[in-house]
Amino acid sequence: MTSSGGALQRTDLLHRLLRSGTATIYEAQGQRGALDSELRPLDPSMKVVGPALTVDTQPGDNLTIHAALPRAVPGEVLVINAHGAVSCGPWGDILTAAAMQAGIAGLVIDGAVRDTAAIIATGFPVFARGVSIRGTTKSRWGTVGQPINLAGTTISNGDIVVGDRDGLVVVDAAALEKVAQATFDRDAIEQDYRAKILTGISTAELLGLVPTIRKFERLQ
Known about the structure:
Order of helices and strands: HHEEHEHEHEEEEEEHHH
Shape: elongated
CATH architecture of the largest domain: 3-Layer(bba) Sandwich
Helix content: 25-40%
Distance between the termini: 63 Å
Largest sheet: 8 strands, mixed
Number of helices: 8
Strand content: 15-25%
CATH topology of the largest domain: Glucose Oxidase, domain 1
């Protein structure tokens, strides 16, 4: 297989994962990889998938973010640990324009952003903890491309990040194909569940919960 063919295959795999949805991916990989539920899309219709370009920036400063953009490979998701700071917005519409010009697929930031109406109008996917109009300094250095701890979840450069209106999930890059197959298998199982529900079978029957439910009913 040529390298371009491999890239196309990987891109198709990522898009299929995005269609499956974050909740399904999370369940398929053993209920692991969910990021903090307070990291939300600026607009519920926003979706993102791609390998992470990891950034750790000092709270209240965005120098490292400006340094990271020229290093990005098209299709990467900028994943920024701003340490949960929401008192200022280190990302706005100008950085969004620069990110789009660089081919970056989207932004995940454990911090705040501003210029939200302008960002939403571009369609650029942004997942953030909050919104703040206050600006930042540009004088303190962090890291680019190193593992980060994003609100309790370790993310390494190149790990796959998937986001939709339900939230965000990260997949270890080395386990991508395994997790993708488990996700697609789960999709098939859930499709079968939906078909059986239409025939009148209960969710308790589908999930084998009838004995457990009857046990508790006897105790009442």
